[in-house]
């Protein structure tokens, strides 16, 4: 019986080496954790910076980053606001000039043992790189979150860098009684191969209601979805058979016009006396930086 002990020890030693080798091999195949991101911000902190010239917005939809220049004649400081976990806030890791009117900003999620599942603002104040000299400067912003053994999770945005030194611009008021993006529900679905109209359209989509004083004229305009063409003035008696409509581009303050081409619907109330004779609409379109364009279109009667 005593002679079996060396064999048992050898077997136990071999098993230990096998277990250690397996453990070592398992550890070696684990991907390395990414290094903690290094901030390039001159100052940063939780929440909204005190004395900010831009108010803290009450978001009701998707959360997007915010950026603004410093107050004063020299635009040499930019403040960014990112949104994420309060215990693992994003870190500003890169800021570059792409053109005189465009910046690129990269944020990486901060490292921590555990991240709270909340959504809180975090400010980043950084010296502006030289070269962004245009009156309006856009920023391509990336929020990056490294994933262990996988590609980074990335959210990309394009935002306007707000200039608090500019005088506020009046946003034109719409003359419509109703408006919404997209096409009217009562409009027949266009054929898949149909070409998209490149100008405004006008429709009678509903009959005259009993005891009504006016009739609804539906107009559809096309342009940037963030800066739609809206009716700002209506002349129901431009001519015996013509309704005059002035269109203007509506651009929200501290925003930019996206380079898409989308429909926008506005509903106008036309007095019955004018609606009874009207067969066409003369659109006069005013867009900043462009000459007035006048287009006359027939009113399409789909009311039956």
Automatic annotation (TrEMBL):
Q: Which keywords describe this protein according to UniProt? A: Signal
State if Signal is listed as a keyword.
Answer: yes
Keyword Signal among UniProt keywords: yes
Provide the residue span(s) of the region labelled Disordered.
35-59
N-terminal signal peptide: 1-21
**Protein name as annotated:** Thioredoxin domain-containing protein
State the species of origin.
Microcella alkaliphila
């Amino acid at each position: 019986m005593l002679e079996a002990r060396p064999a048992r020890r050898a077997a136990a030693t071999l098993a230990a080496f096998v277990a250690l080798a397996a453990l070592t091999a398992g550890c070696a195949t684990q991907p390395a954790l990414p290094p903690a991101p290094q901030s390039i911000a001159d100052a940063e902190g939780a929440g909204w910076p005190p004395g900010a010239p831009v108010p803290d917005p009450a978001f009701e939809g998707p959360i997007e980053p915010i950026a603004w220049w410093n107050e004063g004649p020299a635009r040499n400081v930019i403040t960014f606001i990112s949104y994420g976990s309060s215990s693992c806030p994003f870190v500003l890791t890169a800021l570059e000039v792409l053109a005189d009117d465009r910046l690129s900003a990269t944020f990486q999620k901060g490292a921590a043992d555990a991240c709270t599942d909340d959504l809180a603002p975090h400010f980043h104040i950084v010296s502006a790189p030289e070269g962004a000299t245009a009156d309006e400067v856009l920023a391509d912003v990336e929020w990056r979150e490294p994933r262990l053994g996988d590609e980074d999770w990335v959210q990309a945005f394009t935002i306007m860098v707000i200039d608090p030194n500019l005088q506020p611009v009046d946003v034109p008021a719409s003359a419509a009684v109703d408006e919404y993006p997209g096409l009217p529900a009562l409009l027949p679905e266009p054929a898949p191969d149909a070409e998209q109209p490149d100008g405004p359209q006008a429709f009678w989509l509903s009959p005259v209601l009993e005891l009504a004083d006016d009739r609804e004229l539906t107009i559809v305009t096309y342009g940037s979805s963030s800066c739609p063409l809206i009716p700002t003035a209506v002349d129901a008696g431009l001519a015996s058979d013509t309704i005059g409509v002035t269109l203007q581009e509506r651009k929200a303050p501290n925003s930019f016009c996206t380079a898409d081409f989308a429909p926008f619907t506005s509903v106008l109330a036309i007095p019955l006396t004018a609606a009874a004779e009207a067969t066409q609409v003369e659109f006069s379109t005013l867009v900043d930086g462009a000459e007035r364009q006048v287009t006359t279109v027939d009113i399409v009667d789909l009311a039956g």
